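Journal club side-thread
Mid-discussion, someone asked how the predicted structure for our own chain would compare to the paper's figures. Pasting it here so we can look after the session.
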Amino acid sequence: MKEFGDMIIDRGILDAGYKDDILRVQVKQLARSHSDHATLLFLWEFSSPTIIPPVQFIRMWIKHHQFLEFVKSNWIPPTESFGMINLQQKLYRLKPHLKWWNKSIFGNIFDKVHRAEIAVKTQKTLFDNDPSDNEPFRAQTP
């Protein structure tokens, strides 16, 4: 037996491109009015589209000596548009470059913070076990 979603597509009620996006379909039979046919009411619940996260501006970028020159080199090339569409296209063009620049210059910040937290925890444990003056400096940070 076919699934209800497949039958909807087979009958041409819904384009096959939407098949994977449907979470739930509910069908209600409305009251008959002037004929022996009843109207069907379809209630569709679609999965939400994948949202591409925006670039989050990180304040430390401004303090980097190459940031302004990097943005300028990606901003200056002209587009074939004017006004707000020009701004949109330049921002759209800049976004992947900023992502690449952030990864290549700063790396994975969350990983670095995690490693630093582990190093601090290790140093604290070593100091708690032997609180002599030199012990915290003997441990190597990862």
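Post-session note: The chain has a mean pLDDT of 78.
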